[in-house]
């Protein structure tokens, strides 16, 4: 989770001109595949920025929610605890995979943005000499 937040923080600090990402498509290295497959890095940047507060809110709401005594008693009475550990493990693994994919996408986007800036700087240097 911390790696995801660090990667998004770095992306937000480095990507000063997101419009430079329009029409630039992700490179395969390090980027997880996207469901639509045809989104440019600008759209991906917007998506990653929109997801961050959702992840933060979700984490906060999980920490704020604690089952009341009656809810816990009801679950035990219904025998629902028989596979709670298995279900929890499944969901935690799923969350871990999603966060890993988001982190990879964020790092790949930031890396590509840096490459674009380097190309711009090189072309400016060549035109000025």
Keywords:
129 residues; elongated; mainly alpha; 4 helices; single chain
Report what the structure shows.
This protein is 71% helix and 0% strand. Helix 1 packs parallel to helix 4 and helix 2 runs antiparallel to helix 4. It is elongated. It is built from four helices and no strands. By secondary structure, the protein is mostly helical. The longest helix is centred in the last third of the chain and has 45 residues.
Distance between the termini: 46 Å
- Low-confidence segments, given as residue ranges, are none
Number of strands: 0
Give the H and E element order. Answer: HHHH
Overall outline: elongated
Query: Beta-strand level of the residues, as a percent range?
Result: under 5%
Structural class: mainly alpha
Largest sheet: none
Rounded Rg? 21 Å
Query: Which percent bin holds the helix content?
Result: over 70%
Average pLDDT taken over every residue: 82
- Count, helices: 4
Can you lay out the helices and strands and say which pair or pack?
Elements: H1 2-14, H2 41-64, H3 69-77, H4 84-128
How would you briefly describe this protein structure?
This protein has 129 residues and is mainly α. Helices cover 71% and strands 0% of the residues.
């Amino acid at each position: 989770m911390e790696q995801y937040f660090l990667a998004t923080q770095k992306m937000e600090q480095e990507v000063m001109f997101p419009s430079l990402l329009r029409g630039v498509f992700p490179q395969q290295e390090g980027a997880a595949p996207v469901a639509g497959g045809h989104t440019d890095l600008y759209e991906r940047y917007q998506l990653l920025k929109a997801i961050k507060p959702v992840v933060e809110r979700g984490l906060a709401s999980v920490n704020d929610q604690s089952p009341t005594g009656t809810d816990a008693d009801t679950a035990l009475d219904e025998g629902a605890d028989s596979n709670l550990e298995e279900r929890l493990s499944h969901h935690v693994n799923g969350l871990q995979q999603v966060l890993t994919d988001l982190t990879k996408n964020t790092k790949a986007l930031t890396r590509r943005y840096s490459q674009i800036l380097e190309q711009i700087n090189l072309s400016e240097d060549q035109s000025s000499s």
